[in-house]
Amino acid sequence: MRTLTILQPDDWHVHLRDGAYLAETTQDISRYFGRAIIMPNLVPPVLTSADAASYRDRIISEVPSNRSFDPLMTLYLTDQTSKKTITEAAKSSIIHACKLYPAGATTHSDAGVNTIEGLYPIFEEMQKTGLRLAIHGEVTDSKVDIFDREKIFIEQYLEPIIRQFPSLKIIFEHITTAEAVQFVQATDSRMGATITVHHLLYNRNDMLAGGIKPALYCLPVLKRDQHQQALIQAATSGDPSFFLGTDSAPHPASAKENACGCAAGCYTGHAAIELYAEVFASNNALQALENFASCYGADFYGLAHNTKTIKLIETEWTCPARKRFGETDLVPVRAGENIHWQVVNEPGEST
User: Most buried residue among 99, 228, 261, 283 by CB atoms closer than 10 A?
Assistant: First the structure.
């Protein structure tokens, strides 16, 4: 039986939602993650420093008293975001990035940005203050094939942003394509990228062959095997540009298993580091998991590494078929199936 002890990991992209879901998502995320970048796409969205502080208080109120967990907050960029909002956010100790959602790109993105070039003055202010820009990198033109939207976003928007703002720190969130991997690798250290565990574990055949699997539908959507392999190579390579971001997002089963449309988002918060361990182990790269999960993201955000550790063992356990969230049920990734690694301790002090 293999074992692995690593520094306490962080999640650099997660959706905790609010209201009835918040207690369960916070319980899951705080089991072994020390920190997490909290996405701001609530309804209504997190637009100001005051919004972020209030949301952070709600999250902290749900963290069990025996755990230490630090929510790292973000603001939601809109066409109306002002330079004053950015200046105030940069002075705040709790806000670490601003999130760019192209309007209509994903769940709760209706308030997102319609004209990215119109935000250039905001990017300039972020560049001056050092506030990081987190980007959902997909175009929303209905004429563009859904499997090409990330690639086209790089060409139409990300390349010009990189040229125009040479000091702006950018996180290319939840990348899904070989083209995104290559773009990040070709850019200097001011660009990082998060990689989800569901994009490492699955490709579009897993989602579509034999009938659609609603629990695997997300945006950006799962791509071909060749893109999955490029992501695995990037995550396990030891390149500090790539780090852990689950993009774990809860949706009720009724919204996922719906004849009128499937909600976009995969829930992995129940077993995230265990599933990442599976990927790294199956690719003979367990030794690379600690840097990917516990070091590279903190380095990119200019934060110290955690000092506590967690221990994983290679042992099978069965994931629940459903999880109770508030007054409804949720179907997690790997529902009713075996997971091959397990965390066996609360985070403890490093020795």
Answer: 99
From the list 18, 247, 299, 329, the catalytic residue is 247
Judge contact between 333 and 267, C-beta under 8 A: yes
**pLDDT tens column, 110-154:** 878 999 999 999 999 999 999 999 999 999 999 999 999 999 999
Asked whether the bond before 44 is cis by omega within 30 degrees of 0, the reply is yes
Which residues, in sequence order, are bridge partners of residue 72? 37
Question: How far is it, in rounded angstroms, from Cα 36 to Cα 34?
Answer: 7
118: which DSSP letter? Answer: G
| Whether residue 51 lies in the annotated active site | no
> How do residues 60-100 score in pLDDT, each as one tens digit?
999 999 999 999 999 999 999 999 999 999 999 999 999 99
- Work out the angle at residue 202's Cα, subtended by the Cα atoms of residues 338 and 243, and round it to the nearest 5 degrees: 100
Sign of the C-alpha dihedral computed for residues 91, 164, 242 and 266 taken in this order: positive
pTM given for the model:
0.97
Within 154-203, where are the H helices? 159-164, 178-186, 197-201
Amino acid at 123: F
